[in-house]
C-alpha cells in the first residue's frame, strides 16, 4: 500500500508536469529520498508490531490448543482410545495444530492485509477516475467468484487427501508396531506391497486433486491478467476521446502492473484456508467427546468393592459381563479366575472406572464410583497389569511413578521387596540406568518386578493384580511372594491369574465364565465342589 502511494506521489510531482509540458516538479529528489526513508520506517514499525501481535499470539494460542487437547485426552474414557488409532491422535495434536498455526500466522494476516490494501487502492482509484478503475478491477469479483464457487469441491478433495495421508501413516505405524511378527511370519513382501499400494493411492488421488485445484486457482489468476488488457483498451479509447490525460492513463498502467500481485495472494490464501476445514472438524470432534465426570470425593467408608447387577459391553450387542454381583472385601484377597475371554480383566478395569458400566453399579466403600472423578478414584488403586508400561527414564524414576515424592531410600526398599536388586545391580548404572523406550532393554519378568515395586510404593488401599506374576518363573514368583504379601496386607485385593497356585491363598475365588459368575467360595469349598477350579487344579497338578 505505502509503496503504491509513494509511486503515485512521485509520478504526480515529476511526471505530470513533464507530460503536460507545464511547470517543473514542486519537490526535489532529496524530498522524495526523505519520504522514502519515512515510509520505510513506518513499514518497519508496522511490520514489527504485526509480527509481535500476530506470530506471538498465534504460537501462544497454538500451544494452548495443544495443551487443551492433551488435557482433554487425559480425561477421556479408555473406550475412546480403543476406537481410535493412536498415531491419528498424535497427528491431530501435532500436525493439525501446526497447519492451523501456519495458516493463522501466515495466510490469514496476509489475506486481511491484502484485502484491506486492495480495497483502499480500489476506492482511491475510483475517486481518481472511476471508468479506468472499473476497467482495472472488474476481474477481481469474477476471479473471487470462481474460487468461492469451487470451495465445496476443494473441501471434499482436501478431506480425501487428508484421509488418504492418515491411511498411509497408519500402515507405517502398524508396520513399526508389528515388525517382529512381520519378520517371524515372513510377511515382509506382503507388508511392503500394502505400503506401496497405500502410498500409490495417496499420490494418485493427491496429484489429481492438485491438478483440479491448480486449474481453478490458475483459471482465477488468468482472469486477473485480463484486467491490464481492459485498462489499456479503455485508457487508449478515453485518451483518444480526450476524456483522460496521459498521466492518469500511465498511473493506471503502473498500478495495474502492481496491484494483481496482492490479489493473487488473496486467491492463494483463500485456497489455503479450505485446507483447514477437515483439521478443525477433527479437533472439534475430539473436543466434543464426553469426558468422565465426577466429584473429587475422598472415600472414607472402608474400601469394600461391590458389584451390584453389573452388565457391560464394549460394543453394542456383544455382552461381556451379564448381571454380575459380588463383594471384594477390604483385608481379603478376591481372586477372579475362569476361561479366557470370560470377562476377568474387564471386571477389574470396571472397578477402577477405566470404563463405565452399562447397567447396575459398582461401589467403593459404599460410594457409587460413577459419581467419583476418575483421577480421585484412582488415587485409591495400585494396579499391576501383565502389559507393563515403562518410560524412557531410569529404573529409579520408573519406580517413583508410584509416588512422586518418595525418597531414594523408600524406592530402594520397595525395589528390594519386588526382587529388583538382582537384575538392577547388573545394569551399568544400577538404579540410575535409563532403560530405553518402554523398557525395551529389560525382560518381561524384570519389567513386571518394576511394576510391582511401583505398586508397593504407591501403597494404595485397593490393589488390582491382573496376571501380575505371569511373566515370572516359579522360582522368581516364589521369591517375590514376600513383596506381594506386603503389597496386599490389609488391602482390598482383586487378583486375576491363570496359575491356580497364584490364587491358592485367596480368601474368595470367583469363577467368571461367559460374563457370568458360575462358581464362588473359598479355595477349599470350590475344590470340594469339583467345578472349574478343581479341574484346573488337577490339570495344573497343584494343591489348594
Ligand atoms: N477394549 C476392548 N474392546 C472390545 N472388546 C474387548 C476389549 N477388551 C476385551 N474385549 C472383549 O471382552 C471379552 C472379555 O475380555 P477380558 O479381557 O475381560 O477377558 P479375560 O477373562 O480377562 O480373558 P484372558 O483370561 O484371556 O485375559 C473378550 O471377548 C474380549 O474380546
What does this structure look like?
By secondary structure, this protein is of the alpha/beta class. It has two domains: 2-288, ABC transporter transmembrane region fold, CATH 1.20.1560; 305-539, P-loop containing nucleotide triphosphate hydrolases (Rossmann fold). Helix content is 64%, strand content 11%. The protein has 20 helices and ten strands. It has helices at residues 2-20, 29-75, 78-83, 86-137, 139-149, 151-177, 179-184, 188-241, 246-274, 276-288, 344-351, 374-378, 395-400, 408-417, 421-424, 444-458, 474-488, 500-503, 523-529, 532-539; strands spanning 305-315, 318-328, 333-337, 359-364, 367-368, 381-384, 462-466, 492-496, 508-513, 516-521. Strands 6-7-8-3-9-10 form a six-stranded mixed β-sheet, sandwiched between helices. A hairpin with a 2-residue loop joins strand 9 and strand 10. Helix 2 (29-75) runs antiparallel to helix 4 (86-137) and helix 19 crosses helix 20 (532-539). The chain is elongated, with a radius of gyration of 36 Å. Bound molecules: adenosine-5'-triphosphate. Adenosine-5'-triphosphate is lined by residues 82, 314-315, 320, 338, 340-346. Adenosine-5'-triphosphate binds at residues 82, 314-315, 320, 338, 340-346.
Amino acid at each position: 500500500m505505502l509503496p503504491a502511494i509513494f509511486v503515485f506521489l512521485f509520478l504526480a510531482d515529476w511526471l505530470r508536469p513533464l507530460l503536460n509540458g507545464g511547470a517543473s516538479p514542486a519537490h526535489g529528489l532529496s524530498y522524495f529520498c526523505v519520504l522514502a526513508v519515512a515510509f520505510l520506517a513506518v513499514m518497519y514499525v508496522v511490520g514489527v508490531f504485526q509480527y509481535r501481535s500476530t506470530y506471538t499470539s498465534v504460537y501462544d494460542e497454538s500451544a494452548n490448543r495443544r495443551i487443551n487437547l492433551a488435557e482433554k485426552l487425559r480425561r477421556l474414557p479408555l473406550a475412546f482410545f480403543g476406537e481410535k488409532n493412536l498415531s491419528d491422535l498424535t497427528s491431530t495434536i501435532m500436525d493439525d495444530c501446526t497447519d492451523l498455526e501456519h495458516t493463522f500466522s501466515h495466510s490469514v494476516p496476509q489475506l486481511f492485509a491484502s484485502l484491506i490494501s486492495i480495497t483502499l487502492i480500489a476506492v482511491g482509484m475510483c475517486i481518481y477516475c472511476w471508468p479506468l478503475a472499473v476497467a482495472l478491477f472488474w476481474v477481481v469479483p469474477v476471479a473471487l467468484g470462481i474460487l468461492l464457487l469451487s470451495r465445496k469441491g476443494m473441501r471434499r478433495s482436501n478431506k480425501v487427501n487428508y484421509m488418504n495421508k492418515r491411511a498411509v501413516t497408519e500402515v507405517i505405524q502398524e508396520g513399526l508396531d508389528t515388525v517382529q511378527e512381520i519378520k517371524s511370519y515372513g510377511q515382509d513382501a506382503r507388508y511392503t506391497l500394502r505400503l506401496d499400494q497405500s502410498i500409490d493411492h495417496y499420490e494418485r488421488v493427491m496429484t489429481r486433486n492438485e491438478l483440479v485445484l491448480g486449474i481453478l486457482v490458475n483459471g482465477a489468476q488468468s482472469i486477473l491478467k485480463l484486467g491490464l488488457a481492459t485498462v489499456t483498451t479503455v485508457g487508449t479509447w478515453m485518451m483518444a476521446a480526450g476524456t483522460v490525460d496521459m498521466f492518469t492513463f500511465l498511473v493506471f498502467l503502473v498500478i495495474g502492473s502492481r496491484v494483481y500481485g496482492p490479489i493473487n495472494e488473496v486467491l492463494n490464501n483463500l485456497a489455503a484456508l479450505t485446507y483447514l476445514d477437515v483439521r478443525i472438524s477433527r479437533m472439534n470432534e475430539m473436543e466434543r467427546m464426553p469426558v468422565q465426570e465426577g466429584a473429587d470425593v475422598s472415600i472414607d467408608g472402608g474400601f469394600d468393592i461391590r458389584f451390584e447387577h453389573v452388565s457391560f459391553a464394549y460394543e453394542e450387542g456383544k455382552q461381556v459381563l451379564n448381571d454380575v454381583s459380588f463383594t471384594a472385601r477390604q483385608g481379603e484377597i478376591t481372586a477372579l479366575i475362569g476361561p479366557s475371554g470370560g470377562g476377568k480383566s474387564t471386571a477389574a478395569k470396571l472397578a477402577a472406572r477405566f470404563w463405565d458400566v452399562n447397567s447396575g453399579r459398582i461401589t467403593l466403600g459404599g460410594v457409587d464410583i460413577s459419581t467419583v472423578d476418575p483421577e480421585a478414584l484412582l488415587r485409591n488403586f495400585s494396579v499391576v497389569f501383565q502389559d507393563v508400561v515403562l518410560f524412557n527414564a531410569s529404573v529409579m524414576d520408573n519406580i517413583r511413578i508410584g509416588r512422586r515424592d518418595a525418597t531414594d531410600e523408600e524406592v530402594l526398599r520397595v525395589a528390594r521387596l519386588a526382587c529388583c536388586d538382582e537384575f538392577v545391580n547388573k545394569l551399568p548404572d544400577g538404579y540410575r540406568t535409563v532403560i530405553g523406550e518402554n523398557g525395551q532393554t529389560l525382560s518381561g519378568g524384570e519389567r513386571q518386578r518394576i511394576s510391582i515395586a511401583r505398586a508397593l510404593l504407591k501403597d494404595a488401599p485397593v490393589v488390582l493384580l491382573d496376571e501380575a506374576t505371569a511373566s515370572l518363573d516359579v522360582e522368581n514368583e516364589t521369591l517375590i511372594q514376600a513383596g506381594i504379601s506386603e503389597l496386599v496386607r490389609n488391602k482390598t485385593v482383586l487378583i486375576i491369574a491363570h496359575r491356580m497356585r497364584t490364587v491358592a491363598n485367596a480368601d474368595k475365588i470367583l469363577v467368571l465364565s461367559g460374563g457370568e459368575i458360575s462358581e464362588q467360595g473359598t479355595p477349599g469349598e470350590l475344590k470340594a465342589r469339583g467345578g472349574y477350579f478343581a479341574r484346573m487344579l488337577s490339570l495344573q497338578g497343584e494343591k489348594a
